[in-house]
Amino acid sequence: xxxxxxxxxxxxxxxxxxxxxxxxxxxxxxxxxxxxxxxxxxxxxxxxxxxxxxxxxxxxxxxxxxxxxxxxxxxxxxxxxxxxxxxxxxxxxxxxxxxxxxxxxxxxxxxxxxxxxxxxxxxxxxxxxxxxxxxxxxxx
Length: 140
Hints:
- Helix content is 76%, strand content 6%.
- It is mainly alpha-helical.
- It has one domain.
- Strands 1-2 form a two-stranded antiparallel sheet.
- The protein starts with 6 loop residues before the first helix and ends with a helix.
- Keywords: Membrane, Transmembrane, Transmembrane helix.
- InterPro entries: DUF6069.
């Protein structure tokens, strides 16, 4: 019997999708909480260098970028599940690498210590939500 179509596997698919969707939605909520605590809460002027100019980091930018990162993580996990038996391990390694690379942006582009620390915190919070929650939904 093909194990990919057993009743237990078919029943697990909607729960897996639901759990992944909740993880992807929880990440922007968490990063927006950090943004709210820092920007309106603590008065941090969240500005980054973008080429030769400076740009404010808005709540919309935080929410959308975190949502897109979560969707990309979900897509990569789903792709890996189709093509490798070690999807969880490969995805976790890739997620850790992406986190490390993503930290280069705030460290190099943040204008001021408050901005840099806030952006690093948002990256770490997004990873703290997405990595364990999406990893938990991986097959096998």
